[in-house]
Amino acid sequence: MKQYHKYVGLDVHKDRNEVAIAESSGEVRLYGSISNDLHALEKLVAKLRGENVVLHFVYEAGPCGFGIYRRLKQLELDCLVVSPSLVPRKSGDRVKTDRRDAVMLARLHRAGELSPVHVPDERDEAVRDLIRARTDAIKDQRASRYRLKGFLLRHGYKYTGKSSWTEAHLRYLRELVLAHAAHKIVLEEYLLTINQATDRIARLDEAIEAQVSQWRMRPVVEALMGLRGVKLLTAAALVAELGDLSRFTHPRQLMAYLGLVSSEHSSGNRRRQGSITKAGNGHARWFLVEAAQHYRLPPKVSKELAPRLEKLPQRLKEISWKAQTRLNKRYWALAQRGKLTQKIQVAIARELVGFVWAMAKDVRPLAD
């Protein structure tokens, strides 16, 4: 019997969701508004379902998470989650409402113009949230340190030691004598905030290590730790943010996904390339650029790297060594051409993505 397809666009918000429906042929119609809870979603599915009716849902990724997607998958229904930045929009369209967005999603889904984002399973998302919480703690610690330094500088106190936030620097701060009692209170409060952030980072480090040891993606994390500059935190962050890398058929796809490829505006015989696109996952891109800094050093299996390589197969050891030799040579070739250090690090990070893909593509996660 002939099947009828209905394409359902959802504009998802905290309290209400706008719903639009595009039939297999014909105009797109606005269905109405429903509450943003799973019970209302199930009632909507029951009303739209019928004999020989196939439902296709779509909504944009946002702060409400992937609960709708996971519930629809449990009901064995087709659902796409798309990136708002990749939804085609007319340049002259200056009117944006929730209803128009729902209608647009339904129409584009029917036309096959939308590309889905990767939706992690609940355990992978939990590990990702844990790692992001640590990044937030690092930002809080850095902000508190800047505030304390700014406060002392306003009152003429300058630390003359070699490095800040060492034991010597902290001892200097604790022994500092300020002119007013109120200033001493401010200093102690800032120090307390910094210490709390430091303790929070240490607790999160322990939690990440414990969670990764029980994670199904642990073999992939251990494989990536065979690369120089990629320890437990960086490897776990990359795997949690990117998921199963086997879905990328070529490393260039992964480079583009991470926004590490050059932007381009070319026409006719003129080719013009600009800065990197910075599309995709910025958190993973940040970890890769940080790891890329290690490849300025001569190739070497250090005492920290050697234990991580011991339990890896020979093929992965060869990839790790090839990464060191190639990326170090590339780093200094760019440096000799007078490139800025920041540009060199981004270029090395882009090539490092290829080695990350090669290390991860043949490693299988543990069975759930």
Categorize the overall geometry.
globular
- End-to-end separation: 38 Å
Q: Output the structural class.
A: alpha/beta
What share of residues are in beta strands? 5-15%
**Average of the residue pLDDT scores:** 94
Query: Largest sheet, described in full?
Result: 5 strands, mixed
Number of helices: 13
**Domains counted in the coordinates: how many?**
3
Helix content, binned percent: 40-55%
Q: Using only CA atoms, what is the Rg?
A: 26 Å
Total beta-strand segments: 7
Order of helices and strands: EEEHEHEHHHHHHHEEHHHH
In spatial order, strands of the major sheet run 3-2-1-4-5
- Extract low-pLDDT stretches: none
In short:
With 368 residues, the chain is of the alpha/beta class. Helices cover 52% and strands 12% of the residues.
Offer a few descriptive terms.
single chain, 368 residues, alpha/beta, Nucleotidyltransferase, domain 5, 3 domains, two-stranded antiparallel sheet, 12% strand
Description of the structure:
The structure is a single chain. With 368 residues, this protein is α/β, with parallel strands linked by helices. The protein folds into 3 domains: 4-111, 2-Layer Sandwich (Nucleotidyltransferase, domain 5); 122-213, no CATH class; 218-361, no CATH class. It is built from 13 helices and 7 strands. The protein has helices at 38-48, 67-74, 98-111, 122-154, 167-174, 181-213, 218-224, 232-242, 251-257, 282-292, 305-310, 314-336, 341-361, and strands at residues 4-12, 16-23, 28-35, 53-60, 78-82, 262-264, 273-276. It has a 5-stranded mixed sheet. Helix 12 (314-336) packs antiparallel against helix 13 (341-361). 27% of the residues are buried. The mean pLDDT is 94.
